[in-house]
Amino acid sequence: MAINNLVGKHKILIVDDSPENLETLINILSYEYSIVVAKDGYEALRLAQHQHPPELILLDVMMPKMNGYETCRHLKYNSVTRNIPVIFLTSRNDQESQLEGFNEGAVDYIYKPFVISIVQARVALHLELVTARQTLEQQLVELQEAAHIRDDCERITTHDLKEPLTPIIAYSELLLKDNNLTSMQREMITDMYNAGYKMLEMINHSLDLYKMETGRYELYPSNLQLEDIIKRVLLNLQPLLAQRQVKVNAMLPPIGIVGEEMLCLAMFGNLIKNAIEATNANDAISIELGIEQEQAITRISNPTPIPQA
């Protein structure tokens, strides 16, 4: 039975078989909230599953037919009503009764005889919590939608960026087959080919980095040679080494590892690039591979510290 229907107000279901208790609570709460009442547990279960369910239930413990504990148990078993907070109405304030109510899923107690300020305060508190939970749930939905949009944009961008790279890589490869190139031309075309191929790899794996951050990345490792990874990185960094006038002292014995090639290239590329950029002209960085306690060890050393920034 609905007492009022205040649009935009929180909806409260009051369940009590005592007309006096119902009247008291209605007088206390009806000015601020939309009130619906039930006189037994069965009616409460029906009203709680309404198209517009209550946001809070005040539930009497001692009722005929179905007591408050059993009613609360049914509410919590039902996926439609389990998230509606329940406050028990009772004259019993012993610890066993309280514990039983909390075990059934209640969030609080209001004790009889009712104290107006206490009733108002507890109801207001739990409705604030309901509003906060609803806000968080809405924010979660929005974040999930934003993540889906981001994934879609990433996929579209990845596809669009790969298209102009294809002729750059293909034509560079064709040009390198020409026997009439000067050494400088061959070096420049090789740099162009390597840069294009590197960018293509970065585009292909751009979504992987996002998946790692969100814990959704699936690892597909393969057998790799660590020294080959380092050699490829050094080859790609030749222009930077020449520009910075930095030398490399490398000890690269053959060492097999298990990993993902692109991720290894990216990791060692960043580490070695940082070392080069932190090194003064005419100085050298050292790269040493080894095995210690059945683990592959890579040491990258530069004579001057890398700036904190």
Descriptive overview:
Helix 8 crosses helix 10. By secondary structure, the chain is an alpha/beta fold. Strand 1, helix 1 and strand 2 form a beta-alpha-beta unit. It has a 5-stranded parallel beta sheet, with helices on both faces.
Structure, briefly:
This protein has 309 residues and is of the alpha/beta class. It contains ten helices and ten strands. It is 53% helix and 17% strand.
Q: Can you tag this structure with a few keywords?
A:
alpha/beta, three-stranded mixed sheet, elongated
The oligomerization state is single chain
- Taken in chain order, the helices and strands follow as EHEHEHEHEHHHEHHEEHEE
Q: Can you tell me the overall shape?
A: elongated
List the uncertain runs: none
Overall pLDDT metric: 87
Helix content: 40-55%
> Within the largest sheet, what's the order of strands?
2-1-3-4-5
Rg to the nearest angstrom? 35 Å
Distance between the termini: 67 Å
Strand-residue proportion: 15-25%
Structural class: alpha/beta
For the largest beta-sheet, the strand count, sense and barrel status come to: 5 strands, parallel
Give a count of the beta strands, DSSP E runs of length 2 or more: 10
Tally the helices: what do you get? Answer: 10
